[in-house]
Amino acid sequence: MKNRKLPETWKKINLEDYIITLESGKRPKGGAVSNGVPSLGGEHINNFGEFNIKSDKLKYVPRDFYEKMKSGIIKEGDILVVKDGATTGKVAFVDTDFILQEACINEHVFLLRTNKDICGKFLAYYLRSNLGQRKILNNFRGATVGGISKEFINFNMLLPPLEIQKKIVQMLEKAEDALKKKKEAVKLLDELVKSRFIEMFGNPVKNPMKLPKVKLENLGDWKTGGTPLRSESKYYNGNIPWLSSGELNSIYCFNSAEMITKLAIKESSAKIIEKGSLLLGMYDTAALKSTINMIECSCNQAIAYAKLDPRLVNTIYSYYCIQIGKDFYKSQQRGVRQKNLNLSMIKGLEIIMPNLQFQNQFADFVKHVDKLKFEMEKTLKKLEDNFNSLMQKAFNGELEFNSQLKMDK
User: Fold this and answer.
1) Which residues face 303 on adjacent strands?
2) Is 157:11 a contact under the CB 8 Å cutoff?
3) What span, in angstroms and rounded, lies between the C-alpha atoms of 243 and 277?
4) CATH number of the domain located at residue range(s) 11-159 in this protein
5) Which residues are in coiled coils (predicted)?
6) Would 11-159 and 212-353 be classified into the same CATH topology?
7) pLDDT at residue number 335
8) Beta carbons of 55 and 83 less than 8 angstroms apart
């Protein structure tokens, strides 16, 4: 911005002067319980300002404990900010459509309430924006499990009149609504594939069609990856993609966060994985996360992989068979502190085995849907970029709202 003049009605403020409540919550000694009043933490807020409050994800505090809480009780209009851990800085706004009748926050979340000069949802959008996130995380301290303090609100920002704040909120709500509809459309395509699988083969765990079952060890040569010594710089920053289980997030994989060298393959337990192999996570929450590599790559020891025999099974079919039955297969995890699968357990997993012709028909259907999904995701990415750009311009005073006010009347 070159010598851009701000609207005369905007003013520069310190956010701290406009916050009337900033508090955190707590849980009783021993932590959350299985029933009572929902207690929300960092895991209940996602990157899009939404709440993850499905019944199986909720945690609770006893009602008598909740009724004695002096802070951290959630009310309509509150802004919640994650204060520590991997999701530090994530923001959500408690709108009229918040589905919980009663709820509180735990010790990992801050609750903010503003004075009458700031629209709560305007501030929530601001804090979610790239501009707001930078200012929040400027207060971040700590290495292993760092976080922010109550001082995070001590920063300067531009504040338009309340009427303009509300106009900005209306504009961003419309843009975000279009974004959400596109995301839902993409999700529906995933559901369509699952429905087609059930229609063709039935539930892969209950196996109502009495299809034969085959262990994974009979479909390919299963191996695990390895991690080259971190102390050896000669093993890293090469040109061979090297996957961790946290990257097994979709059916196809085209790249990786880290790269290793040919020397790492030669001198460590890391191995080259043939393109088109099935990769399965084995450890903890990543157990049975899966992908099919579309590039020659390598992986760490938390992943099992195999190039499946195309004369016996279709890899795309196998991927969905495992993903749809994942909850059942994961029940075979073991370990107290960390529930893991191992290579022997992966090899021993049984999947239903319909006629290969039908597997290939299903895979062709998946490929057709994937093409449509790819185009929709390109549109979604463009909408996300536009939304982020819109937020930045709105909070920098780069948009003209006077004309919009006239248009809306």
Assistant:
1) 281
2) no
3) 13
4) 3.90.220.20
5) 165-192
6) yes
7) 52
8) no
Q: Are 165 and 124 in contact (CB under 8 A)?
A: no
- The rounded distance, in Å, linking the Cα atoms of 121 and 113 is 10
The amino acid occupying position 77 is G
Quick one: 212-353 is in which CATH superfamily?
Answer: DNA methylase specificity domains (3.90.220.20)
Q: In angstroms, what CA-CA distances link 106 with 44, 58, 81, 153?
A: 11, 12, 11, 19
Which distant-in-sequence residues (6+ apart) come within 8 Å of 220 by Cβ?
277, 278, 306, 307, 308, 309
Intra-chain end-to-end CA distance of the chain, in Å: 31
Distance separating alpha carbons of residues 279 and 125, to the nearest angstrom: 38
**H or E segment to which residue 279 belongs:** strand 278-281
The answer to whether residue 403 scores a pLDDT higher than 50 is: no
Give me the residue label for tokens 């920002």: 157
Query: So where are the chain's domains?
Result: 11-159, 212-353
Q: How far apart are CA 105 and CA 130, in angstroms?
A: 25
CA distances (Å), origin 108, targets 134, 190, 263: 19, 33, 43
Strand 37-40 vs strand 19-24: parallel, antiparallel, or unpaired?
unpaired
Residues in the chain: 409
What distance in Å separates the CA atoms of residue 51 and residue 99, rounded to the nearest whole number?
Answer: 10
Q: Using DSSP, state whether 174 is helix, strand or coil.
A: helix
pTM check: above 0.85:
no
Rounded to an integer, the average pLDDT of 5-27 is: 92
pLDDT digits (tens, 9 = 90+) for 26-45: 999 887 788 899 999 999 99
Distance, CA of 112 to CA of 22 (rounded, Å):
5
Instruction: Supply the pLDDT for residue 405.
Output: 40
Q: Does the pLDDT at position 1 exceed 50?
A: no
Where b means 16+ CB within 10 Å and e means fewer, 118-140 reads bbbbbbbbbbbbebbbebbeebe
